[in-house]
Fold this sequence. Notes:
By secondary structure, this protein is α/β, with parallel strands linked by helices. Helix content is 50%, strand content 11%. Helix 8 (145-148) links the parallel strand 2 and strand 3. Helix 1 runs antiparallel to helix 6 (102-113), helix 3 (59-72) packs across helix 5 (80-95) and helix 5 (80-95) runs antiparallel to helix 6. The protein starts with 18 loop residues before the first strand and ends with a helix.
Amino acid sequence: MPHTNNSPTLPGKPPAIKAVLFDLDDTLWPIGPVIARAEQLLFEWLVENAPAVTQQSSIDSLRQRRMDLAATNPALRIDLWKLRHAVLTEVFAGVGEDVRKVDAAMEVFSEARHAVTPFADVQPALARLQSRVLLGTVSNGFADLGKIGLAQHFQTSIAAHRFGRAKPDPAIFHAACTALNVAPEETVYAGDDPLLDVAGAQQAGLQAVWINRFDRVLPDGITAQASFTSLHELEAWLEQTNAR
């Protein structure tokens, strides 16, 4: 269990927020166009280097194969890199292409996958927030924050494929709280996914705020502590909340 803070609080007053944990994709940067470009660049590489694959498969059919494999292999739902690698290996083998090329193919995809552009508010907001609260990330993806240029803002970063469990499992949220030496109730999770991020964090005992950058509506039955369209709004809310 995470370390709990024993400092006294007034009866009925919620504990001060000491840490903020962030989701990554579609919270700190838009991911849809990045994945589309990465898959296109990978396919173009396959045309040149493994033509038998592209004669039998399309971007859409490869995506369907990943969905089918993930449905039958829960471990691969946690490690999306392995999922892509496994499908490419199957496809290469099935058409007689050299499976040793799969690692090179994944390098092409991974490099493009990391070519993200953070939303304009992210860098300045994180720079200010890290002087006020502890910061961390909890993600089901395999983004490398060092490659992206954001690692310096976070005291801990936990990825599902390394941890072995994925959101909304409470264990991955608790691991981040433990790493920061804060209790769940002293921690806010900020993310875009209503089920994985908002409901998942709340079920783990954290507060949850919804980062709604795309003008969506929360599903019935899910209520965040607050909803924001930018990290600037999150900053203001944190200041107000901790001033109470």
